[in-house]
Amino acid sequence: MDEEAGHSRESAPVPVTFTNLNYTVKTKSGMLKIIDSVSGHFASGKMTALMGPSGSGKSTLMDIIAGRKNSGAIEGEILFAGEKPSRSVTRHLCGYVEQFDTLIGELTVMQMLMYTAELQLPVTWSHSQREKRVNEVITALGLESCKNTVIGNVLLRGISGGQAKRVNIGLALIHRPSILFLDEPTSGLDSYMANEIVLTLTALAKDSRTVVSTIHSPTTYSFALFDDLLMLKKGSVVFEGPIRAAESHFVSANLANAPDKNMSFSLPEWLVDITSGHAAHLKGNKAVECTPEELVSAFSRSDLCAQRAHERKLLEAPPPGSALRYDSKHQAGSLRRLGVLLKYRMVTHYKSGEFLGPRIGDKVIFGLLILSLYWDIGSGTDAQSIQSTASLLYFMMALCGYGAAAFVPSLTLDRPLFYRELADGNYNASTYYMAKFVEEAVLATFTSFLFGVTVFWSCALQGSFIVFVAAYYLTTMTGICLAYAVAALSPNMDAANALLPAYVTVCMYFGGLFILFDRIPVGWEWFSYTSFLRYSWGTLMNNNFGGDANRTIAGGVRVFVGDNGTALTVNEFYGFQGDLMGSTAACLGLLSLLTLIFAACGACSLHFVKFNTR
């Protein structure tokens, strides 16, 4: 093993063979077969196009071979260089480029590739080695002119669509995969950029790499750059072989009339028309329509099918010196990957107004509003002032719950990137969640202190400033963890934005201000113990109105009357008394426990609940 342990210096040739692949999924009407007895092979050093009408199973087949399917039942045999690969070997040997670009808009091209390199390349590599590898990828993909340009997003102008697609390909090439899968790499690009992308793939294939791409409507030029073609119709093979043999196969099998090349002729369009059952409309003659069964049967009886089966058998023999050896012990651990996420994503977010605005803006606005409305309210000892102060403390905590809506997009909008990086093996769900948690926890320390400085003395609040800030900070973190749990459990942002405020509103009813704890109807008392507002408000009430230090202000003044006419203190009236609810430390501890419960729910939901069923 050399200095680049775990990764070969060049792409080792790894042909792919697959035999009798079947894939079924469960639907409401029963089991549905998506892939039906598909066999074939992808040769190393060549580009293979996967084509067929929409819904024919192109992407599904590629996902199965690339080990990306996370649902349904798979049958059949898949071999890499004649051997059955493990999940880790599949991930190591394969690079996968998704149809839609999943990039971090605030990073530059160089930073995005370095970020991926630090997550994927062995820990034995030095920084200079990683940088060298990234520069090799940049050169190979022709990205030198934009390497220091931000990628951009809807709010930030950045690189072009073609350059973004190249960056996406670059992410898959960082670890030098021997097999490269691409899902519709030319989708959304003009013909010039589409041709440039396919030309780039041609160069990658020449490096002994197996390149496989689904492609929907290629230009005639880009289609001619591919070596082989695998066509599907309703999950079955209707053609597999060299592209140059496709036309003669369909014509000789009487599946279509010979195309009129005196007119504007496009071979890929002609082939898709055949598999769609509209082969003759280009000629203006009566349509020659073929059923899927006829298309499949014609190929299975052809000499080409027998020839391809023979070639597949030859490739199934493992070559000397297996290419499937992979030493994973040099891969970065969870702690190192956490550091990489914080280094590139947290630091970048802290420079982004789009990220900071929703997290700081509401604290400033509500802080100034409270300052102007409740100036010196805490110094009053009359019933009205005390009640206003208690209400103020309650709603300051409630704002942390409603303000948590600002954290929902952090997970929901990031979901495509998260799923892609998870499938790439860049990190696990727990590492990702911890990075998000730390990112928000550090910033919340600053925003909580800022809010405390704004309102504590201006409103003449009593007790410890440190306890006030701690309660606000913990409630903010509770809201963040609650938002993450809701976002992880919700299929989209609309659902999360509906569920989160609904839950916070319910918690408000059981927080002790609108209905006193001892007045909550039988059967509902239990829910008050799950309301985070009970403990966050209890902390502030005990801090402000309880203890000897506050008795000169309001704590010992009996301004409320109980059911039997007995005068009550503020905290006695609201139910903050006894060893549990009358203790600031106990309330803070229970609030911390709820925060941990919400955090665990969010982390587990990220791990087990998936909305990217493939």
Automatic annotation (TrEMBL):
Source species: Prymnesium parvum
Pfam families given in the database record: ABC2_membrane (PF01061), ABC_tran (PF00005)
Record flagged with keyword DNA damage: no
Topology with respect to the bilayer: Multi-pass membrane protein
Native organism taxonomy: Eukaryota, Haptista, Haptophyta, Prymnesiophyceae, Prymnesiales
PROSITE patterns per UniProt: ABC_TRANSPORTER_1, ABC_TRANSPORTER_2
Database matches in SUPFAM superfamilies: P-loop containing nucleoside triphosphate hydrolases
InterPro entries according to UniProt: AAA+_ATPase, ABC2_TM, ABC_transporter-like_ATP-bd, ABC_transporter-like_CS, ABCG_transporters, P-loop_NTPase
Record GO cellular component, one term: membrane
Domain ABC transporter as annotated: residue spans: 16-259
Places the protein is found: Membrane
Membrane-traversing stretches: 392-413, 441-458, 464-486, 498-517, 583-609
Domain of life: Eukaryota
Alphabetical keyword list: ATP-binding, Membrane, Nucleotide-binding, Transmembrane, Transmembrane helix, Transport
Protein name: ABC transporter domain-containing protein
Molecular function GO terms recorded: ABC-type transporter activity; ATP binding; ATP hydrolysis activity
